[in-house]
Amino acid sequence: MRLENKVAIITGAGSGFGKATAKLFAKEGAEVVLVGRTKEKLEQVEKEIKEIGGKALVIPADVTTYTNAEKIIEKTLEHFGKIDILFNNAGTFRAGTIETMSNEDWKDVISVNLTALFYMGKAAIPHLKKTRGNIINTASAGGLIGFPQAVSYAASKGGVISFTKAVAVDFAKDGVRCNAICPGTSETEMTKDVMNIEPLRKNFLDPIPMQRFGKGNDVAYAALYLASDESSYLTGVVLPVDGGWTMS
User: Fold this and answer.
1) Which terminus of the chain has a smaller tally of CB atoms within 10 A, N or C?
2) CATH number assigned to the domain covering 6-184+217-241
């Protein structure tokens, strides 16, 4: 198994990419810490992991405060004794331009999508240095190119990309790797209702050369590779998982 004896913290683990990745990591031998705001969703993921013989710990938490980030790390260490992988996956979206978006929506998106990565990374890095572990951040194709009506989202995800590269440079000497995944348009619990509306579905699909939307497992398998020893010489990588969209 590719993650045997590894301990992985996954934020935003109750649905979408986080859920798919948590289940795959557990299948590959990792002990998984499930972090998110909705306890019931996390417990469902925990149940599904245990059904395949995996181990999981549920920590309901809002990752937008440093105090909570510290508590997540403390509980992980109390339960599993170490940290090998931090997957910063929690995210949110608010539509709007600089003209139409409220100050509150801007702050919320930046807090969840970017500041939380700083808090989680700051709390985890001393322990990742001990295990020569790694950090994976969920960025977005929206951080590589401009999304219409998504000024805060694009700004936050562009920040995630630069944050990833900075952390990679700072901690390469300690054996800690940091990489980012940039999903394109994907079908998840958050987007499925919109994806089923025509002509929106066609509008989203047309620019994708592979002519399909991403799935949770597309990101999960990318995360698995980046988390595993197979990618031991990769750091600072920004990996598009978008069916060729940003390339085109």
Assistant:
1) C
2) 3.40.50.720
